[in-house]
């Protein structure tokens, strides 16, 4: 007996949350390597000082990308929590 059944082709909405603090050297590769079966990407710029936000804005041609910009650093836990709340409020069923 399977506890969760879905119809063929009925895939869950899976989103990825990326807390970002001074990761300008890596964020482009991270975002562009997320598989196409991921429904949404929430990148939380956690008051970065190194151009991370500029790079995220350059990547906005990917319609899955949602950028949240924290005015003050919330830390990895606070930024992640904000991203999860955003993803679930926008239809995500699974958030990683």
Structure description:
It is a single chain. This protein is α/β, with parallel strands linked by helices. The protein has one domain: Spore Coat Polysaccharide Biosynthesis Protein SpsA, Chain A (Alpha-Beta Complex). It is 29% helix and 23% strand. It contains three helices and four strands. It starts with 13 loop residues before the first strand and ends with a strand.
The radius of gyration computed from the alpha-carbon positions, rounded to a whole number of angstroms, is 15 Å
Please name the CATH topology. Answer: Spore Coat Polysaccharide Biosynthesis Protein SpsA, Chain A
CATH architectural group: Alpha-Beta Complex
Number of domains: 1
Order of strands side by side in the largest beta sheet? 3-2-1-4
What is the residue-mean pLDDT, rounded to a whole number? Answer: 92
Beta fraction: 15-25%
Class inferred from helices and paired strands: alpha/beta
The largest sheet, given as strand count, sense and whether it forms a barrel, is: 4 strands, parallel
